[in-house]
Amino acid sequence: MINIFEVNETNKMIEQENLDVRTITLGISLLDCIDSDLEKLNEKIYNKITTYAKDLVATGEKISAQYGIPIVNKRISVTPIGLIGGAACKTTDDFVTIARTLDKAAKQVGVNFIGGYTALVSKGMTPAEELLIRSIPQALASTERVCSSVNVGSTKTGINMDAVKLMGEIILETAQATKEQDSLGCAKLVVFCNAPDDNPFMAGAFHGVTEADSIINVGVSGPGVVKTALEKVRGEDFETLCEMIKRTAFKVTRVGQLVAREASKMLGVPFGIVDLSLAPTPAIGDSVAEILEEIGLERAGAPGTTAALALLNDQVKKGGVMASTAVGGLSGAFIPVSEDQGMIDAVTAGALTIEKLEAMTCVCSVGLDMIAVPGDTKASTISGIIADEAAIGMVNQKTTAVRLIPVIGKGVGETVEFGGLLGYAPIMPVNNFSCDAFVARGGRIPAPIHSFKN
User: What CA–CA distances, in Å, run from 412 to 69, 176, 382, 419?
Assistant: First the structure.
């Protein structure tokens, strides 16, 4: 039972500390839409999405008004289109028609984004999945709300280096295709290792084939709440610090559980998971980097940063898991550069490099996220960065991801503005020593020995 003290405390978090529910994401299975006729397939997809999601936005707004909880985004995730389009799509243009159908449906129901323009190729690519991947630049350039993801590796299967090589090329092509918008298409494209089936966050959300016909997943956020809480224990020992993070994560996750339960009841859709990630925004005071600095670092990126992030990630999970009946998705701390003012400041000050960010991804929830790099970066260099990040996920049995944005026409020292939650970012330098011969080998990096547990 929630008492009046908890109500007042939650109100303070919302009004003063940027607490919000980052997203309600409705997952929709499209398996029953599969058809060998492309026109019928698109019609079925559009009809199912617009039927199942017709009340999603209104429901989110009603819950927000009723409880006074900001719900920033309403989103949809669908079954990976690499699976759904295989019978009907014979060319990249065929797949692009599906992307446009998804975009049209998303606009019709009023959601911010729709995820699932996805291929799962951790062990190999079917012809259809390769076609989908090659269609991504055109698909993202010709749509507004579609998000795309490709899973190139897992702990069980190893890393598909053919897919890694291809994705380096596709990211550059997507940057070129959207160069008039500062290569914005790459902000809607993420490459995964160990992608979860129930992630509510974009750009990597898709509706896994093990899920029900439809499901409600909720992503909560509250870096500002954690930062404010930690100000009360400055100078205290690590045990006291950890206890404060756990208690705060519990409170934040309770809000997400409440929203998830209400949305599930109002929509008549089963509740899936609460993703208890600390997802920052460009707003002042809503930064994961500032939490790390409150723990005791002069700047994010200073010696001790990886240890501080490991502590934060673990305590967020320990506190949050007790507050919800089902926790899933990514769950932990996100470290996107462009979306976190503290991260941007650390890069500008020279405290944070891509190499340090890569080390931090060993212990955080995702990976190299929303990082702008020079537009003349080679495809093989991007592939090498993807391979490094996938290896971290594969060996450590965790999700890792890469969302790099090679900004065409811009170089180190310049800044790119994406707007909204995507924020802005300084162009970061990359290591330009060649990995061409490594990437060109092709084939698959085998799974690590611990993958053979059953």
Answer: 40, 18, 16, 20
Do residues 159 and 385 touch, judged by C-beta distance below 8 A? no
Please return the burial class of 125, using the count of CB atoms within 10 Å of its CB with bins 0-12, 13-18 and 19+: buried
Handedness of CA 157, 159, 161, 165 (dihedral sign): positive
Q: H helices then E strands: how many in the chain?
A: 15, 13
CA–CA separation, 332 and 279 (whole Å) = 9
Residue 98 and residue 103: Cα distance in Å, rounded? Answer: 9
Q: How far apart are CA 430 and CA 391, in angstroms?
A: 18
Residue ranges of the chain with pLDDT lower than 50?
1-5, 7
Query: Going by C-beta distance under 8 Å and a sequence separation of 6 or more, which residues neighbour residue 274?
Result: 217, 218, 219, 220, 253, 256, 257, 260, 320, 323, 324, 326, 327, 328, 329
Q: Is the dihedral of CA 107, 110, 111, 116 positive or negative?
A: negative
Query: Model pTM?
Result: 0.91
Residue pLDDT, tens place only, 154-190: 999 999 999 999 999 999 999 999 999 989 999 999 9
First to last CA, the chain: 40
Q: Which helix (H) or strand (E) holds 394?
A: helix 379-396
Number of C-beta neighbours around residue 323 at 10 A: 20
DSSP 452: G
